[in-house]
Design a protein that fits this description.
Keywords: Hydrolase, Metal-binding. Belongs to the metallo-dependent hydrolases superfamily. TatD-type hydrolase family. The chain is 45% helix and 15% strand. The protein is α/β, with parallel strands linked by helices and 287 residues long. The protein has a single domain (2-286), classed as TIM Barrel (Alpha-Beta Barrel), CATH 3.20.20. Strands 1-2-3-4-5-6-7-8 form an eight-stranded parallel β-sheet. The longest helix is centred in the middle third of the chain and has 18 residues, at 127-144. 49% of the residues are buried.
Length: 287
């Protein structure tokens, strides 16, 4: 069994989600997590997660979306679609972003916090806004103990500094998603207890440095993902990515670590269940 730990089903174009889920299952991808990049997308994300038993979700704001965060919060305050999906326990939108995220995790199928992080590649960017947003997400992860899903691009040093410092103050589970950074970042993140998630990029011919990092990361700290609809792996490059293609990531990990694809599937599935404990508890309660 495979799990696609990170995809964006709401961003797929010109496809039926029914077909995408069917294709995933036919390729042994039994579960997937569709990731939030901005809060005003949550109604659509939750609609998908509620419709499909094997789809779970996260809540968070991508660093490239933080400029629109305040507007998104105003939308949320009036969003009956989201309110109807939350447990009816005197729900009220609270004072700050961390509290808002924490409230939204009351939804039974929201199992992670993010994606959040730092992105100094896509311009224009505001380092202070991105840092403030990341700190709100870290606070939410520390309080809820739901994993922090971290995006980092061209921001390794600041990512290391913030996550290392905050981990000293408040322990939180988490991972670096779609890892494309240096071995130094991998080392530092493993040192503070985070997991590393690899995408289809590791199948690219020019990804030799990243392939060496796959070999370096302990198997018991590794996750796999598609980041669909982006980054389709070889041999599907040029196509829209989808959760079914995570098997190519698993196959490449197996090749690089000189083990079987079945071993990769088993270990990364167990890693996901360990890290995303709310997911595991949900499955156990459904038995």
């Amino acid at each position: 069994m495979l799990i696609d730990s990170h995809c964006h089903l709401n961003l797929l174009k010109d496809v039926e989600i029914d077909d995408i889920i069917k294709q995933a299952i036919e390729n042994n991808v039994q579960y997937l997590q569709t990731i939030s990049t901005k809060l005003d997308d949550l109604p659509v994300i939750l609609e998908i997660a509620e419709k499909y038993e094997n789809v779970f979700a996260s809540v968070g704001v991508h660093p490239c979306e933080v400029n629109g965060h305040c507007e998104a919060l105003q939308v949320l305050k009036q969003s009956q679609e989201i309110l109807m999906r939350l447990p009816r326990q005197g729900f009220a939108f609270p004072r700050n972003d961390a509290a808002t995220i924490i409230e939204l995790t009351n939804h039974p199928k929201i199992i992670g916090i993010g994606e959040t992080g730092l992105d100094y590649y896509h311009e224009p960017y505001d380092k202070k806004l991105q840092k403030d947003s990341l700190l709100h997400h870290i606070e939410a992860a520390a309080i809820t103990k739901l994993p922090l899903i971290v995006h980092t691009r061209e921001a390794d040093d600041n990512t290391i500094d913030i996550l290392t410092s905050e981990m000293r103050n408040n322990k939180f589970p988490g991972l670096i998603h779609c890892f494309t950074s240096s071995k130094k970042l991998a080392e530092k993140m493993l040192d503070i207890g985070l997991y590393i998630s690899m995408s289809g990029i590791i199948t690219f011919k020019n990804a030799t440095d990243l392939q060496e990092i796959v070999k370096y990361v302990p198997l018991d700290r590794l996750l796999i993902e598609t980041d669909a609809p982006y980054l389709a792996p070889t041999p599907m490059r040029g196509k829209q990515n989808e959760p079914a293609f995570v098997r190519y990531v698993a196959e490449k990990v197996a090749e690089l670590k000189n083990i079987t694809s079945k071993e990769v599937a088993n270990v990364t599935t167990n890693n996901f269940k360990t890290l995303f404990s709310k997911f595991t508890n949900y499955l156990n309660s459904s038995d």
